[in-house]
Amino acid sequence: MSQIVCENLSFGYGSNLLAENLNFSVNAGDYLCVIGENGSGKSTLIKILLGLKAPDSGRIILNGIAKNELGYLPQQTEMQKDFPASVYEVVISGCQGRCGLRPFYNRNEKNLAREAMNKMNIQNLAGKCYRELSGGQQQRVLLARAFCASRKAIILDEPVAGLDYESSHEMYRIIHDMNHNGMTIIMISHDTEEALRHSTHVLRMTRNMNEKIFFGSKEEFLNHDC
User: 82 and 56 in one domain?
Assistant: First the structure.
């Protein structure tokens, strides 16, 4: 079943059109890799999917999932890397959308935070200060936070940016395992070769409006690209 549908989507900034009448759908359990040169509209598309920006025309249709149920791992700023909170506090903050008007987390949300930390193998870091962690550890903390926000779909914006090879490999392994267990993954990545290794579908954006945006299966992309 289509979980996320982009229908006749057009968007850009000012007079700079980035995409026109873009159509694609993401089924539950898909692993969509979004690639393309800088300035091609990848991050803008993500903002539209998350409801942070309105498209110029067209619409996003969500089936069986609300916008506040989309987990999101954004690119970190230097200020965010210095955030003075414990790992547990950062992870469980992903449950805020579940709390409604409650000013506290309930038992289920606390258990979910512990489950997320176990999945990311950071349970031993629960009491440590987030800003004292390595880059790879911080990314796993943020992925655990996104997991708390949604058990259905997670959007990742360059999840291995700035990480060394070993940390990147571990991050890709964790993301693959999440997808294997039923989580829908939408990931922006410049690391095309590694990102394609586990993806099921590819969306390739382009700055050239005369060049058609590609969407299809990984196999179709590899054949198309030859």
Answer: no
* The total number of structural domains that make up the chain: 2
Q: Tell me, yes or no, if the pTM score tops 0.85.
A: yes
Asked if residue 173 and residue 126 are part of one domain, the reply reads: no
Give the sign of the dihedral formed by CA 81, CA 82, CA 85, CA 87: positive
Mean pLDDT by 10 residues, the chain (226 residues): 92 84 95 91 91 92 86 75 86 80 83 92 93 90 91 90 86 91 92 85 87 91 74
Contact status, residue 188 vs residue 34, Cβ threshold 8 Å: yes
- Which residue, of 151, 174, 206, is where some domain finishes? 151
What are the backbone dihedrals phi and psi of residue 102, each rounded to the nearest 5 degrees, phi first?
Answer: -70, 135
For residue 82, give its domain range: 77-151
Q: Tell me, yes or no, whether 7 lies in a domain.
A: yes
- Is position 71 within any domain? no
